[in-house]
Specification:
The complex is a heterodimer.
Chain A: H1 3-36, H2 53-59, H3 62-93, H4 100-112, H5 115-125, H6 131-166, H7 176-195, E1 217-218, E2 222-223, H8 224-250, H9 254-262, H10 267-278, H11 280-295, H12 299-304, H13 310-313, H14 316-324, H15 333-358
Antiparallel strand pairs in A: 1-2
Chain B: H1 2-24, E1 28-34, H2 37-55, E2 61-67, H3 70-80, E3 86-90, H4 91-98, H5 117-120, E4 124-125, E5 128-129, E6 132-137, E7 140-144, H6 145-151, H7 162-176, E8 181-184, H8 189-198, H9 214-228, E9 232-233, H10 243-249, E10 252-257, H11 260-268, E11 274-277, E12 289-299, H12 306-316, H13 319-327, H14 349-360, E13 365-368, H15 375-390, H16 396-412
Parallel strand pairs in B: 1-2, 1-3, 8-9, 8-10, 12-13
Antiparallel strand pairs in B: 3-12, 4-5, 6-12, 7-10, 7-11
Helix pairs in contact in B: 2-12, 6-7, 8-9, 9-15, 10-11, 15-16
Chain lengths: 366, 413
């Protein structure tokens, strides 16, 4: 055996375990799914060819249409929020401050909890009589006081800034030192007005508020349970992705920022015109992972299952599962396979689109 | 070369050993069921006391193999040919699993006449019997004696109509004040169905479900109104998971549960003074309704040891085994001969409860819990309708109309 052939064989042998994994868990599964999508297979005897009727069937199923809407809204909003959130958090965590290590660890914590645990905590928080309901009612009760504080603070701040400027001193509208004084004036003023019975605190009783089982939709198309899942998912994923951005940020040499700064770029411009373009390959990775992950979201939907109506929680991946395990009724493997292929197709198309039109894995744009 | 030969022979030896072990397993009968503390303990005890002695002479060993999420597991196990020899067949999954052809017909191997016909019918199809009910349950009303005493309201009784019941629990709540509830009504068919049945409404009539019906609507309106008025609460409103938790809290006057709540209350609320009675009657039909819940033992068609599997099934459903379960206060027997067991005429709280569970199956309009072959999907529409009205998000009209549409879709699939 020649040296070259030997080398190729060695390489092949090293790749083999991974190839076997791909063949068994991807290629075989994919071909089988494609085959089942054209049959009426029910896990048992039935296995006749039915052409494309499963595909027309799922598109005529209102539950599938709802699953599409839910998955798209979940994916778009979650990917957007978590990408922007992770980038901002990474920029903050990249500051060279004393004790930043503690904050990096603390902010990373939400990623460690399994999604099952997080869902349970969220269900508990969003119970009709839970903490969020209590806070919502309390905030609405104290709203007059909060608004009064804000108004007095704003007036005091404006007065102070005007006074400082009249003395020829530089003062920005949000000067921190003046803001502290204004805030104290605001709080004291509001408490005083409350004591004088001019501003009153509402006395609405903490009442059960529906969050998870609400049937109306946020912005007219996002069911509330999906909205909760968007919040929950962003909360747990931002820290994970922050780590990726942080690694990218640490690779950017300080000299680039110094140059930008000499050219007169302010911090915001530095982020927009230096950080964001240099991080493009990282952003491509983060968005790709985001799209793939959110399109396959299953666990949170399944765990929320019992507490919210199905229309409000179903996603494409959950629809696939739900078509096979129907609480004792005959499995619709054909439907599930058709839906799974549609899900795979959509994910691929979206990734191609984002590659072409939005963020590609090339470095700085040409 | 020598080394290689040694390696091969070791591998060959291991393969022979492994295959002999696999062959040895055909002398073990495996039993599949729920992975819960109660089921695992009970079935293991039944196996040790009543099954093993009968099979010892044949050299057959018997093992309980509990599975988490059993309903889904058994479906995939039957499909892939890895199911246990004997397993639980749940009422609501029965018709669809029977149609898979993976369950052995038992005619001629078990004396079917010894078992209650109403239970046999849940597990039969095309004139063949595919499962033997291991036990059954119905709903009874549990009431907290202390709360009724404190409120000076007479206990609920078997003559009460929905109106009497409403008056009684409203008075209890009025007397005890805020923080107390008259009853727990979950937004789910598995409890509400009993009230719907009392009106004479049938879940499935000649292959169709109609909930756009005056009877169903009467029950639906009454049930949801009690929650909307605040006299009844959904268990989740008081941080309870089910009716048993509601009773345990000591803040709810009544709850509707089956015999399964007895063991729970015995362990979790040993100081609770409670009684049980039959469900209230629909004032219009004059009848009470109920849901009959049951689970059977079924035999895998692909079992390697058919004779032994049938023997195990017969031992598990024998008079002695069912008597043991009944006298332990765990479940009602499916054998006709045990329906007059002295345990059921006892005067203890649990004896009376079991007597009421037993009566529930035959008094008035009791219907099987299982909606034919449609499984859990069928319930979903009704569950969501109940919740949406209880939460004030839909009117009765709207909710019932939407639920009918959802049921139609499920049944057309």
């Amino acid at each position: 055996m020649s040296g070259k052939a030997r080398e190729n064989l060695t390489a092949f042998l090293f790749l083999l375990p991974f190839l076997i994994g791909i063949i068994v868990f991807f290629a075989f599964a994919f071909v089988r799914t494609a085959y089942y999508s054209t049959t009426n297979y029910n896990l048992f005897e039935k296995n006749d060819f039915v052409g494309l009727s499963n595909f027309t069937g799922v598109f005529n199923d209102p539950l599938f249409v709802q699953a599409m809407i839910n998955t798209f809204s979940f994916s778009v909003f979650t990917t957007l929020i978590q990408t922007v959130g992770a980038l901002l958090l990474a920029i903050i965590m990249n500051q060279k401050l004393k004790g930043i290590g503690f904050f990096r660890t603390a902010y990373y914590f939400p990623s460690i909890a399994s999604s099952a645990v997080t869902v349970m905590i969220f269900i508990w928080l969003f119970r009709p009589t839970g903490l969020i309901s209590y806070i919502a009612v309390s905030v609405s009760n104290y709203m007059p006081l909060i608004l009064t504080t804000l108004v007095i603070t704003a007036v005091a701040q404006a007065a102070q800034v005007a006074f400082e400027r009249s003395r020829g001193l530089p003062a920005t509208p949000f000067d921190p030192a003046l803001l502290v004084v204004s805030l104290i004036v605001g709080v004291v003023g509001a408490v005083g007005l409350n004591a004088a019975n001019v501003v009153q605190i509402g006395n609405a009783q903490p009442e059960p508020l529906l969050w998870l089982s609400r049937l109306d939709k946020f912005l007219g198309f996002i069911p509330y349970p999906i909205l909760m899942t968007i919040i929950m998912n962003s909360f747990t994923t931002i820290p994970t992705l922050m780590l990726t951005f942080l690694a990218g940020l640490q690779g950017i040499p300080q000299s680039v920022y110094e140059a930008a700064s000499i050219d007169g770029a302010n911090p915001l411009q530095q982020i927009l015109y230096v950080t964001v373009p240099i991080l493009r390959p990282v952003t491509f990775y983060v968005i790709s992972v985001g799209i793939i992950g959110t399109f396959q979201m299953f666990d949170q939907a399944a765990l929320l299952g019992g507490t919210a109506p199905l229309e409000g929680t179903i996603t494409l991946a959950f629809y696939v599962y739900n078509s096979v395990f129907r609480g004792g009724a005959e499995s619709l493997v054909g439907y599930a396979s058709a839906a799974a292929l549609i899900l795979a197709g959509i994910t691929l198309i979206l990734l191609q689109l984002q590659r072409r039109f939005f963020v590609s894995d090339e470095g700085v744009s040409k | 070369m020598k080394k290689r030969f040694l390696g091969l022979s070791v591998a060959f030896g291991a393969a022979v050993l492994a295959s002999s072990m696999v062959q040895g397993q055909s002398n073990t009968i495996t039993i599949g069921g729920y992975d819960g503390a109660t089921d695992t303990a009970l079935v293991s005890e039944l196996i040790a006391k009543f099954v093993k002695p009968k099979l010892a002479a044949d050299g057959v060993d018997v093992k309980y193999v509990p599975t988490a999420d059993f309903g889904k597991a058994i479906q995939t196990q039957l499909s892939s040919g890895t199911a246990p020899d004997l397993f639980y067949l749940e009422d609501f999954a029965a018709k669809s699993l029977i149609s898979s052809g993976k369950i052995m017909p038992l005619n001629g191997m078990v004396n079917l006449k010894d078992f209650l016909p109403s239970l046999n019918s849940v597990f039969s199809s095309g004139g063949k019997q595919y499962g033997i009910a291991k036990d059954f349950n119905t709903l009874v009303m549990y009431y907290n004696r202390d709360l009724f005493d404190q409120a000076k309201v007479s206990y609920p009784d078997a003559d009460d109509t929905w109106n009497d019941f409403t008056t009684k629990i409203t008075n209890v709540q009025k007397a005890l004040g805020k923080g107390f509830a008259g009853t727990c009504f979950p937004g789910s068919y598995d409890r509400f169905g009993a009230f719907a049945a009392s009106t004479g409404w049938k879940p499935i009539l000649s292959g169709k479900t109609t909930i756009l019906d005056a009877n169903f609507r009467r029950a639906f309106t009454w049930y949801t109104n009690l929650v909307k008025s605040g006299v009844a609460v959904k268990p989740s409103q008081i941080n309870a998971g089910w009716g048993g938790d509601c009773m345990k809290s000591g803040k709810v006057a009544t709850a509707f549960e089956g015999g399964w709540a007895l063991g729970f209350l015995r362990d979790q609320a040993p100081n609770l003074k409670y009684g049980t009675t039959l469900l209230p009657r629909d004032p219009t039909s004059g009848k009470r309704g109920n849901l009959i819940y049951t689970v059977a033992w079924a035999v895998n068609n692909g079992t390697k040891n058919k004779t032994a599997a049938i023997k195990v099934l017969n031992a598990l459903t024998s008079v002695e085994a069912q008597q043991f379960v009944l006298r332990g206060g765990l479940a009602l027997p499916s054998r006709i001969s045990l329906q007059d067991d002295p345990y059921l005429s006892g005067t203890g709280v649990e004896n009376v409860a079991f007597r009421n569970v037993f009566k529930g199956a035959s008094d008035g309009n009791a219907v099987p819990f299982a909606p034919d072959r449609f499984g859990g999907d069928w319930f979903r529409g009704i569950d969501e309708a109940l919740n949406s009205v209880m939460d004030g998000q839909k009117t009765v009209d709207q909710a019932v109309r939407d639920a009918q549409r959802s049921i139609n879709t499920v049944m057309a699939r």
